[in-house]
Amino acid sequence: TTLAGGSTFTVEFEQNLNHYYTDNPGRLALDLAENSDPKESDFTLLVAPLPDFNNMNEISRVNFSVAVPIPDIDCPACVLRARYISNNPLENDRGMVFYQCADVAIKPSGGEHSDAAPAAPEAAEA
């Protein structure tokens, strides 16, 4: 998927199971890394994290749609990531983080990707 730099894009993702813990609620976050093989330190938060919520102990999937600002950068190989940080210390998988990722390209508002072929020179008039 190619995204337009400087635009707003709606990211849709799913929380498969809620691990809400009243004393230390988790959060859902959307991040971007500007390379195709990122380390954790390469990711930048795109919007303020969404707070986890108590869905009354229902074991159900919850879908989210979040509008995020796309940075106006040239990035032919970025990673867009959704994370659920559960913070629930009572589960066997305490402190688990659940990920959903997508490979995306970002085209800057002013032109082509840097890996685009250069334009052919115009013919000179005689």
Question: Can you walk through the features of this model?
Answer:
It contains no helices and 8 strands. Mean pLDDT is 82; it is low at 115-126. It has one domain: Coagulation Factor XIII, Chain A, domain 1 (Distorted Sandwich). The chain has 126 residues and is mainly beta. Strands 1, 3, 4, 5, 7 and 8 form a 6-stranded mixed β-sheet that branches. The protein has strands at residues 2-4, 8-15, 27-33, 43-45, 50-51, 62-69, 75-85, 97-107.
The CATH level-2 architecture is identified as Distorted Sandwich
> Share of helix among residues?
under 10%
User: What is the string of SSEs from the N terminus onward?
Assistant: EEEEEEEE
Morphology call:
elongated
Strand content: 35-45%
CATH topology: Coagulation Factor XIII, Chain A, domain 1
- The SS-based structural class is mainly beta
User: Mean pLDDT, nearest integer?
Assistant: 82
Largest sheet: 6 strands, mixed
How many DSSP helices?
Answer: 0
| Unreliable residue stretches | 115-126
Number of domains: 1
What is the tally of beta strands? 8
Q: CATH class, anyone?
A: Mainly Beta
Rg measurement, Å: 19 Å
CATH homologous superfamily? chitin-binding protein cbp21
Distance between the termini: 44 Å
